[in-house]
Amino acid sequence: MRRKPGALVPLELSLLEAALALRDQAQPEFHGYAIATRLAEAKAARKLTAYGTLYRALGRLEKLGALQSRWEEPLSAETEGRPRRRLYSLTAEGERAVLRARTASRGGAKAAAPPRLEEGLASS
């Protein structure tokens, strides 16, 4: 079954909600492990079956324009004796998708269509 362009699956929406929560806690950038930890704390971990699932979903969200990423500076990782991390941040489009989903759930839309990103970005 193929999903419609721009439609978000529950895991992707959970990732965006967690990214918004981290940003609201003065953490505008996050790496994969931080978001996985946040999902576990929010009891959304059942949606995350493996870290491969997480990173594929983060990649899809970046491709859709809901997230953006960059590699951290090599010196930071070297100083801490670990590999470099890819750091993600929520875009305005990602925030709008979360807010639309929250509005739809408050409206009691049980049979509503899945949350979507705006058509212009989703089709690019």
Question: How does this model look, in words?
Answer:
The chain is mostly helical and 124 residues long. The chain is 52% helix and 8% strand. It is built from 6 helices and 2 strands, in the order αααβαβαα. The protein has a two-stranded antiparallel sheet.
The CATH first-level class comes to Mainly Alpha
| Number of DSSP strand runs | 2
Low-confidence stretches: 120-124
Tell me the helix content.
Answer: 40-55%
Tell me the structural class: mainly alpha
Q: Give average pLDDT, whole number.
A: 83
Span of the ends, CA to CA: 21 Å
Radius of gyration: 15 Å
Please give the CATH architecture.
Orthogonal Bundle
H/E element string? HHHEHEHH
**Total number of helices:** 6
CATH homologous superfamily identity: Winged helix-like DNA-binding domain superfamily/Winged helix DNA-binding domain
The coarse silhouette is: elongated
CATH topology: Arc Repressor Mutant, subunit A
Enumerate the strands of the largest sheet in spatial order, edge to edge or round the barrel: 1-2
Strand content: 5-15%
- For the record, the count of structural domains works out to 1
- What can be said about the biggest beta sheet? 2 strands, antiparallel
